[in-house]
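Q: Hi! First time doing this. I have a protein sequence and I read that you can turn it into a structure. Is that right? Here it is:
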Amino acid sequence: MTNACFTLTSLNDPLPSDRVSTQCSTAQDAEKTTVSIHTDMGAVETEWRVLDENGQNSLHQSFDWCAAWQKTHESQTLFVRGARGRRTLFILPLEIDRGRLFRTARLIGSDHSNLNTGLFADEDAMPPTELVSVLTCGVKRQLRGFADIVTLDKTPETWRGKVHPLAALPALQNADSSFQLPLLGNIERTLAQLNAKRRRRKMRISERRLAALGGYDYVVARETSEARALLDTFFQQKAARFEAHGLPDVFQDTDTRAFFHQLAKSGQAADGKLLELNALRLKDEHEGRVLAIAGLSRKGDHVICQFGSIDEEVAANSSPGELLFYRIIERLCSEGVALFDFGIGDQPYKRSWCTIETSLRDIVLPVTLRGHLAANLHRAAMLTKRMIKANKASYAFVQRLRQRRQSPLKPAAAAEEH
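A: Yes, that's right. Below is the predicted 3D structure, encoded as structure tokens:
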């Protein structure tokens, strides 16, 4: 392959804006903090892109990520901006989910995000007590005509050594954590944080098994057409795995697939930052067969693995997913990446790779009287989910029930695995 980042040969070869606003008085500054709601992304694009430059703000709330979501979904979106004078202090990009009983405002694309931070200026821009006042006074007042409840889920209390602004708000712990591995400049120093000997031995076993099949290429999609093909293969591999385990396919929805295709398309124009497709491809007898795929997003020196899949029909015993991560991490060590993020969800392979576990929090803000009832129900559901996942027997029982109820004709709305 001409774009191969690493190649293993066979054994025989050498190795706008409608806007409403309110003001909240502050004790520390004569200027007032103004909270406004915009329906047009373009109205706040300039300020938004300035906040994007803050490395503490998640890629999932970046302008380009949210623009891709808006382009592929028909949900109502609102953009909440907090400012003092001409300085923008924060932006919360929200979408409105209209349920049968309640209207929920949540961060755009939350179902497919691994880390939510909103967008904030530097940590000293607004004292925590003032931020709480602004969010509970200004934001809730402005959203009253649009939503009953605001949920800001998967937010960190601390992120990369700094307390996050939203940590000042009360929250419940999310049922899942996210997992990260610091990259230390080269693969040797990085693996030294782990069981390096075991990790290299496992990699050598995987490569021997693949060499017996003719070898492999580790490739990164550089062309839009190749990214599209790999993404379609990922959807196929993931659908097969979900079906085999009786789980709903969270990538089956047409809008969801269009969203990831839009990210892949935009990602190529933005130097692969939004979504970069990495894969292992077999050579020789199985020429072109894709064994494993991982979708990565990069902001600054932080890379998030958004999703992954493997071909479970060919060479599954070679641990292609683990080998792909090895090659990805090896490459990123030389490209200035300091933190590789395996994303949310507690799985054995993540714990085997990672030295950092980040607890995440779910924030619930009732906006209306009906929203107080919705908030209580939401908190109860989160607590129940956390209790079930903390008990292996209960969690296994729930998974069995889900498998029995799952119908290929009517997939459920969400799944634990992604």
